[in-house]
């Protein structure tokens, strides 16, 4: 095959025109589109990094808030425990005082009952002794002796003044 110089030169010129046209109308717009797309992707990546950083910061603040709430909860629980213990102590002391007061009232009532019983027992015993003595005296001496004893008692009582 024989190469014709003019055809070769025309094909080279044709090729160079095609390359120039492709570069101007196809290659530059494609490069521009690729650059814009790369910038858009970089912007989205940067936005995603910023959002990830903001999310991490929000998570950190949330963890700190949870920790602060936990500390506050623990402090409130400790305070509630202390108040409950204080109230328990107060109620126990009050119950002890009330128990002591009830025991004291009961002992006082028992003492009064004992004294009343002892007084009643003395009175009953005195009545019985007088009744027995009266019967014994009546049996031994009759009514005259009783009158003499009473008169003698009244005389001595009058002498005391």
Averaging pLDDT over every residue, what do you get?
89
Helix content: over 70%
Question: Uncertain segments of ≥5 residues (pLDDT<50)?
Answer: none
Instruction: Give the end-to-end Cα distance, rounded to a whole number of Å.
Output: 185 Å
The helix/strand order is HH
Q: C-alpha Rg, in Å?
A: 63 Å
Strand content: under 5%
- Biggest sheet descriptor: none
Total of helices: 2
- Which structural class matches the secondary elements? mainly alpha
DSSP E strands, number: 0
Gross morphology is: rod-shaped
Note down, in words, how this protein is organized:
This protein has 2 helices and no strands. It has 161 residues and is mainly α.
Question: What's the layout of helices and strands?
Answer:
Elements: H1 5-141, H2 143-160
Supply database-style keywords.
161 residues, mainly alpha
Summed up:
The protein is built from two helices and no strands. By secondary structure, the chain is an all-alpha fold.
């Amino acid at each position: 095959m024989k190469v014709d110089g003019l055809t070769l030169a025309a094909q080279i010129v044709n090729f160079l025109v095609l390359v120039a046209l492709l570069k101007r109308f196809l290659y530059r717009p494609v490069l521009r589109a690729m650059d814009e797309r790369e910038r858009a992707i970089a912007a989205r990546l940067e936005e995603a990094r910023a959002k990830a950083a903001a999310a991490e910061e929000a998570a950190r603040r949330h963890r700190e808030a949870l920790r602060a709430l936990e500390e506050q909860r623990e402090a409130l629980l400790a305070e509630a425990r202390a108040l409950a213990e204080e109230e328990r102590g107060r109620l126990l002391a009050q119950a002890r005082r009330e128990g002591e007061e009830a025991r004291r009232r009961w002992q006082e009532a028992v003492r009064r009952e004992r004294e009343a019983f002892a007084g009643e027992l003395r009175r009953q015993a005195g009545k019985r002794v007088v009744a027995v003595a009266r019967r014994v005296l009546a049996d031994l001496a009759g009514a005259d002796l009783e009158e003499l004893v009473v008169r003698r008692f009244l005389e001595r009582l009058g002498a005391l003044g």
